[in-house]
Write a structure and sequence with these properties.
The chain is an alpha+beta fold. About 20% of the residues lie in helices and about 35% in strands. The protein has three domains: about 240 residues, Beta-galactosidase, Chain A, domain 5, CATH 2.70.98; about 70 residues, Sandwich (Immunoglobulin-like), CATH 2.60.40; about 325 residues, TIM Barrel (Alpha-Beta Barrel), CATH 3.20.20.80. It has a 15-stranded mixed beta sheet that branches. Strands 21-22-23-25-27-28-29-30 form an eight-stranded parallel beta sheet.
Length: about 675
Amino acid sequence: MKKRVLWLTCSLLLAGLSVSPLQAETMLTPWGNLHGVRVGGEWVEFEAGLRIVQPDWSGYAAAVKYLQRPRYVRSASQRTVESRIAGVAFREVLTDTVPGQAVLTIEVEVVEKREMAGIFFCVDLPGRDFGDAKVQVMDSGSVSADGTTGADAHLTEGLPRAGQQVRIAGWNRTVDLRLERPVEVRLRRDQSNRATALNDPRLDQPFMAPPPGEPGGRQVYLKLLDGTPIRGDRASLSLAFEVTAVPDPEPVELTLDPSKPGRRFDGIGGNFRLQFPKTDPAVIGYCLDHLPVSWGRVELPWAPWHPDEDRDPLVVAGSGGLDRRVEEAMAMARTLTRRGMPVIVSVWSVPRWARAVNQPAGLRGTALNPAKSKRIVDSLVGALAFLKERYGVEAALFSFNEPETGVEVRQTPAEHVEFLWQMGQRLQERGLATRLLLGDTAHGTPAALQWITPGLDDPRLRGYLGAVAFHTWRGCTTADLELWRDAALRLGVPLLVTESGPDARLHEYPRVRLEPWFQLQEIDLYVRICAVAQPGALMPWQLTTDYSVLGGGGVYGEEGPLEPTQRFWNLKQLGLTPRPAFSLPLASNRREVTSAAFGDLAHGIYAIHLVNNGGPRRARLKGLPLALQELRVFVTDATRGMAEGGTLASQTGRVEFDLPAASYVTLLGRQP
């Protein structure tokens, strides 16, 4: 059957932009949504992307993080996303042309026939900036400053109108959309992708998600294909966005309270699971030599350590038969120990003999054989004893990696508790000081916290547990982080973030790690975790080639010498925090500024960390100790890496200074 084709072409123009990446940035996520535009430092927040709408408009499918397998390619001037949602394949290309301009082209093709109201490009407008926005549709011609010239009309919710231009005018934000030809435009008030992500336990909290109680937003739908497409139908849409923003002149007011120290913070750690033998040694060496790493986490390759149940792995290792992967992992642990850091040992791979006969249907991961629990515990404790005796490393903590989701060991809450109890007893019998992690879950959600609740309540585990641990791949709302903090307090042990990062699938589209918006998002997450959860350590995934904080050197095929990225400098700057230090309350009155503070009260050393997600603004900080008379300033952004920005003189416990746009600023001071 002959394919029906609809072609529309124009461009994406970003008004008011200059050459500096601090001022001009279009945020295209690797799953295919525009996530706003930074104009003159101000972030104009919206989410724009494809929606395949159900026939009765009761719902839609959209490009959502983690729910698809996109292909993302980044070059000097282009970003390309290819993916598929709800039987529709799409390709998006965002091309930077000259300063202040970029071109966005979207192509879709129906690959599976299904009933739908149509395929739309939707601009999802947050209520905070656009809740009372005027939305107008014009047939042709330009729009005047007051939005009243030409054949314009205010768009009414639910009533479609054909148009070639759309103006969305909020109180301090304006988005103009220009098309080469008229298309059907609808204004609706649906549940947004933003709300979906907040309510779906599989998904991460979006960057700068709206706080509870924020007014609901609206959505502008542009139709690409109608509701009767057949397989092979195609459409192409290119949009011209002209985005303007009024700078927010209000300063941020910050209040420190050194009189209420919280939990101890040992600084940044790192994961060192070896996966890339050609590039890992150089990357790891660079990170260890140039970052203040305080904790390390390595893998115990359990399957190659004990592949045959009937052969004692200690005998095999003693006779020179130690598997290369085990040898390299244990040598990595020794390297970290020699640098003075405690080491966590975690297990991913499972020997075949230890696997349950009947695996959980439809679930990821490998269940262990309960009939062989004693043999399993003996095997693992034997490996930890060998690590101590042969390599001089007594692991501080031990865990199965992400056991609630099965990466790769999968346990029920009851199985997790039973294993920890048996493992703790055996470690004690062998005279090992190694303690156990409760959790080490993939997610920082209430569901993951509920999974560890039986362990919180079981008195048999007291004395065997060394920390509560979680990873940041899901959740991490303020409410979630408070619950995890309280869980660790309840046991009287540290809370450890044993894997941190904003995107678990970064390895599938690693070039996005170089985008300024991603690098700012990551440090914003880390500072927020430090402020709310008060972890004992925060351990990025990883300080190896995988998810690397370095560029070049063959990392993901990147040419040139190894060099630090903005992510590297963010970590190094967070590492300026004195060790050990206590978390200190630091209040901020601006949503755009994320803040955390620490103090080594015994030595009078203080660190203030501020992530400014908005435009340039003034900051006023009060509550500093009167004896703290001077603060050094450090700045990391898209053009600077932990650059010193002079000193601030504190008068009566107050300082006032400038926060650059889209920046991470640290103040470091020591009492005389």
